[in-house]
């Protein structure tokens, strides 16, 4: 990680944006680090170099039209260094997330992750109780990373050392709809994630302890002392829906018997979510069925 720490793209661009809550770092396997902006992956650092998606580097006359003529191709700007195109790459990543429900949901997760910036300041870090720790989680055991459905968000409670996995949906997502026969898609998702967390229960705390150690070596974090990490034994997984709390139709969907094993919380605005308050609400969730989650 020493080479990454000294890289000008990291030092001059990514690190200041992490401190502002505009970029979120996520440690991956084999010393890879992903950097997210607005829910989209701006860069991945691996094998001592940065990579980014080609879509983020396209320079077009009309950003709303994906097609190019030969004349337009001849006018395309030559790309020099990622640092020269940094703001452009961020803009393209943000623009891409405005299309498609799945992409919009990743953007909402990105808003929640802006809370990570509190660990970058001494005057706020000591009061932090719950922080976003990871996004787009895929386990090595129980599924392949390629094309796998990934868990949206991991939260860490610094007071207890416990980890919780969170699936995020928009209130108008069809994944919440219960078909005449069968389960809502979100129930199948949560069940699959529960099994994956169970299968990796011993590995997860070790992986995230290493994750934190790498972040501390890379960032000027002020991390409060915390207990040894563990997966929350009571409610390891919960559902967060971004919609109107007073929407009775939405509430009825979340009362589905297929979702009884999971806390289902509703918030209207991702950017203003208090993660400590969210955690406490999960703690107080009624029902014993989900308490055998692992």
Give a written overview of the molecule:
The protein is an alpha/beta fold. It folds into two domains: 1-37 and 40-96, no CATH class; 114-294, no CATH class. It is 34% helix and 19% strand. The chain is built from ten helices and ten strands. The chain has helices at 2-6, 8-20, 70-75, 86-96, 101-113, 122-125, 185-199, 203-218, 248-254, 275-283, and strands at 24-27, 33-37, 40-46, 49-51, 130-137, 151-157, 162-170, 230-231, 237-242, 264-267. Strands 5, 6, 7, 8, 9 and 10 form a six-stranded mixed beta sheet that branches. A hairpin with a 2-residue loop joins strand 2 (33-37) and strand 3 (40-46). The longest helix is centred in the C-terminal third of the chain and has 16 residues, at 203-218. The radius of gyration is 20 Å and the shape is globular. The two termini are 34 Å apart.
Keywords:
alpha/beta, 10 helices, four-stranded antiparallel β-sheet, 10 strands, 294 residues, disordered C terminus, 2 domains, six-stranded mixed β-sheet
Topology:
Blueprint: H1 2-6, H2 8-20, E1 24-27, E2 33-37, E3 40-46, E4 49-51, H3 70-75, H4 86-96, H5 101-113, H6 122-125, E5 130-137, E6 151-157, E7 162-170, H7 185-199, H8 203-218, E8 230-231, E9 237-242, H9 248-254, E10 264-267, H10 275-283
Parallel strand pairs: 7-8, 7-9, 9-10
Antiparallel strand pairs: 1-2, 2-3, 3-4, 5-6, 6-7
């Amino acid at each position: 990680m020493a080479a990454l720490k000294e890289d000008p793209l990291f030092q001059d661009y990514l690190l200041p944006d992490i401190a502002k809550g505009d970029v979120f770092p996520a440690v991956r396997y084999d010393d890879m680090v992903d950097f997210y902006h607005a829910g989209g992956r701006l860069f991945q650092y691996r094998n001592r170099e940065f990579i980014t998606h080609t879509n983020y580097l396209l320079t077009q006359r009309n950003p709303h039209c994906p097609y190019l003529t030969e004349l337009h191709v001849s006018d395309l700007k030559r790309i020099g260094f990622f640092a020269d195109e940094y703001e452009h790459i961020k803009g393209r990543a943000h623009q891409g997330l405005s299309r498609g429900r799945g992409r919009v949901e990743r953007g909402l997760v990105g808003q929640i992750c802006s809370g990570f910036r509190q660990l970058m300041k001494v005057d706020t870090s000591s009061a932090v109780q719950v922080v976003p720790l990871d996004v787009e989680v895929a386990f090595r055991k129980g599924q392949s990373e390629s094309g796998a459905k990934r868990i949206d968000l991991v939260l860490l409670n610094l007071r207890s050392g416990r980890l919780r996995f969170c699936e995020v949906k928009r209130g108008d997502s069809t994944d919440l709809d219960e078909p005449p026969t069968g389960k809502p898609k979100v129930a199948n998702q949560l069940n699959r994630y529960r099994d994956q967390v169970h299968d990796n229960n011993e590995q997860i705390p070790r992986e995230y302890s290493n994750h934190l150690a790498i972040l501390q070596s890379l960032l000027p974090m002020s991390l409060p002392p915390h207990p040894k990490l563990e997966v929350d034994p009571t409610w390891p997984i919960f559902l967060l829906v971004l919609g109107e709390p007073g929407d009775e139709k939405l509430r009825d969907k979340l009362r589905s018997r297929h979702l009884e094993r999971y806390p289902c919380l509703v918030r209207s605005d991702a950017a203003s979510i208090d993660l400590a308050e969210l955690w406490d609400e999960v703690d107080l969730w009624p029902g014993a069925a989900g308490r055998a989650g692992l």
